[in-house]
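Structure tokens please, single chain.
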Amino acid sequence: MSRAAAEMKVKSEVVGPDKYDPRAERDEFVAAVHRKPSGIMISAASADLLTSDIDSALQQGIPVITIDSDAPASKRLLFIGTDNYSAGRLGGQLLVKLLGGKGNVVMFTYPNQLNLTERQHGYEGVLDGHPGIKVTQAIDIKGDPAVAFDTARQLIDSKAKVDAFVCLEAIACPEIGEIVNRAKLGGKIIILAMDTDLRTLAWIQKGVISATIGQRPYTMAYFGTKLLDELHHHPLASLTENRAHQSFSPLPTFIDTGAFIVDKDNAATYIQENQANGITQQ
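Here you go.
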């Protein structure tokens, strides 16, 4: 967002809670609407909480688009992000391959966030065809990496039968990698992560995390900012019109920014890409 705003010489601002807190996010959204910005992008932690406020913003003439995590029941103009069901299927297919078709899996997620729910459904859609693989737990980490750390440690200390850890969001798997590495189980327990933060990539290079499903949050925000600028200078006739079934709509309902697998063979490329864009630690 900052890059796009600098290129266009417009003002941009990031607001929101420092940790996973859907109600605090909703409060920040309402406060932003009161400031009457030219446009708003939001990644919806809770679609149910935000739907009516998104609709209210549009009724007040403020374009709203969702990125990363959608609020599909709202009148938001469009969603820019990953096809999360397909990303889950991509992970599920890799998990089946790495487990050889059998094993016990523990997942880490936020159960009420739509993009993570869709990823879980994608995994489950693949695993339904492989009865030898069982998801024994889906842990709600509540936005706190310490929950993932402590849960993984308890499972390993108790010698529970866990063959794979799957993280549907970004913050859990670096902590799980730490626990698995301490237990000297790197390469013996499958770990499938989400996103390409540097800690995850470092554990992949060390052979502790097996792979991660990468996505393009930079692209989501960059393109979303450019689009909001376009909508400001060339406004739609109506922000509240339902275009979902219009064959002559000027906007799509969804722009898929893609997902891909990062493993030991290509992790270095993504580390270099992070560093080239000024990201040196996380």
